[in-house]
Specification:
The chain is mainly β. The protein is built from 1 helix and 18 strands.
């Protein structure tokens, strides 16, 4: 299992982890793990919509067991149903047709797996655009590094929550900054990435995802609890519930989260 590193800098929580989130539990009883990411890229209006279903394994196992044969659909507030199909017994479920792009629209995710009905809801949250990216050579902990800052303008007079994601072939896993504007309303803010691995002409994908307050709280708790246990996303604590519930048997609650986000994206080439 890859180890993860966590740094706390200012308002940002910087983590390194595998993507998608590897969720496990110490419980002996297998639970359903729901990793539902319903995204729309702000700049292109392109959807990225998939739901990963798996089963928990033991704490020391790297095995990921797909949850096959589930019935999955998303519904909007008007009752329109968007069914999902499973791709090649992989536990990855994709929509038969894309879900429309509607800011602040509430969606519900419904899953039937082995006679258990799971349900949860979330709203599509807008996100500020990534306005610019600046790279700066720095000397950090005895190494020559590059510092990348992805700048955005915080919309004033409203609560905003988001996370930055950085992806590159040079990174072992994606890195993240979690952000909220409690002390930065209406001002410029940025996500920050440090790297010693990057070379000229390397590409880095910078993304910022809009989060609801509930989603922000979940990711914050998940990161904090897992950091204390040896690294973010190594295991999901059994007492940390997401926004999905088991309507059939509340004691057999699922793990994971149903997230719906607008996403701002920039592809950056290192010079």
């Amino acid at each position: 299992m890859k180890r993860s590193v966590c740094f706390l800098i200012g308002l940002f929580l910087i983590i390194q982890c595998e993507d998608p989130i590897d969720v496990e539990t110490n419980d002996a009883t297998q639970k359903l793990v729901i990793e539902a990411s319903i995204n729309w890229i702000k700049e292109t209006k392109q959807p990225e919509q998939e739901i990963l279903l798996s089963l928990t394994t033991s704490y020391f196992s790297d095995e990921k067991i797909p949850a096959n044969g589930a019935e999955v659909y998303i519904a909007d507030k008007y009752g329109t149903i968007y069914p999902f199909y499973e791709k090649e017994n992989s536990g990855k479920y994709l929509p038969n047709k894309s879900i429309p792009y509607q800011i602040n629209e509430e969606f519900s995710l419904n899953i039937n797996y082995k006679g258990q009905n799971y349900s949860g809801s979330e709203s599509l949250i807008a996100v500020a655009s990534i306005d610019s990216i600046i790279s700066t050579p720095i000397y950090f902990f005895g190494e020559d590094r590059l510092q990348f800052e992805a700048f955005s303008f915080d919309p004033p007079n409203e609560k905003n929550y988001s996370y930055f994601e950085y992806a590159s072939d040079r990174l072992e896993g994606n890195e993240y900054n979690v952000y909220r504007d409690d002390f930065n309303d209406g001002n410029i803010y940025y996500g920050i990435l440090f790297g010693s691995e990057f070379e000229e002409n390397d590409s880095i994908r910078f993304r910022q995802y809009g989060l609801s307050r509930r989603a922000f709280n979940y990711w914050n708790l998940l990161i904090n609890q897992n950091t204390q246990q040896g690294g973010p996303f190594q295991t999901t604590p059994a007492n940390l519930n997401g926004n999905m519930t088991n309507l059939t048997n509340s004691e057999n609650y699922p793990l994971g989260y149903f997230r719906v986000s607008e996403v701002s994206e920039i592809l950056f080439k290192v010079e």
